[in-house]
Write a structure and sequence with these properties.
Strand content: under 5%
Shape: globular
Distance between the termini: 9 Å
Order of helices and strands: HHHHHHHH
Number of strands: 0
Largest sheet: none
Length: 226
């Protein structure tokens, strides 16, 4: 696995990790009594669902590429990458910096860890239907034609970065239990202000990288990654 591919996975995963739906459910769980076990099980559910979903999609996508797209001119693929990069750039540049609106959290009927594990899986499966960054990362892995171990490691790297904000909120709770409600209110206000900025500039950075990667292929005959 090349350094360029790893950096691409990390960058895409960072963009994908900025998901208010996952944060809202976790913040709700953190307000319950003795939340650490159920929050850890919630995070585990998110990771398991996302990872297994990636394995299933990657297996099907790799077979599809091998069967139908092995003869496609690399210029066509890089042209698609260029269009995707331009799309991300345009989206990032046009995105208005207004406070993000966070929806109401899904509340489980039971707060036992096994049930919050299921909550994490349900929330993540629901998000997988619109997980464009994850599909882009999976497409990258499929194009790299890695071994089974390499693909599993690539998905592991992606999901590790994806879950970092969730672990960050848990660490924040552990450091500020006595003033957690006030801290979470400040965090929510900060998220409302900074989340649009993070999404905006992340899209610009990732889009610019895709554009430069495709441009390197067309101008020098060798892409930065892949």
């Amino acid at each position: 696995m090349s350094i360029g591919l790893i950096l691409a996975l990390v960058g895409i995963a960072f963009v994908d990790s900025l998901n208010p739906s996952l944060f809202v459910a976790q913040l709700y769980l953190l307000t319950t009594p003795r939340p650490i076990p159920r929050v850890l099980s919630y995070i585990a559910g998110v990771i398991v669902a996302n990872y297994l979903g990636g394995v299933l999609v990657l297996g099907g996508l790799r077979s599809l590429i091998t069967t139908f797209f092995s003869s496609i001119d690399p210029a066509v693929f890089r042209g698609g990458e260029l269009l995707l990069g331009l799309g991300l750039l345009v989206f990032g540049l046009l995105l208005r910096l207004k406070p993000a609106e966070v929806g109401e959290a899904r509340k489980p009927r039971s707060l036992q860890p096994i049930h919050t594990f299921g909550l994490g899986m349900i929330v993540m499966v629901n998000e997988l239907t619109t997980a464009l960054p994850y599909f882009v990362a999976i497409e990258r892995l499929a194009q790299a034609q890695l071994s089974l171990l390499g693909n599993l490691a690539g998905l592991g790297i992606y999901n590790l970065i994806f879950a970092l904000p969730l672990f960050g909120f848990l660490l924040l709770y552990m450091q500020a239990q006595q003033h957690f409600v006030q801290t979470i209110e400040r965090v929510n206000r900060g998220l409302a202000v900074w989340m649009p900025r993070l999404i905006k500039y992340s899209c610009i950075i990732v889009g610019a990288f895709f554009v430069f990667d495709a441009a390197a292929f067309f101008m020098a005959g060798r892409a930065l990654i892949g």
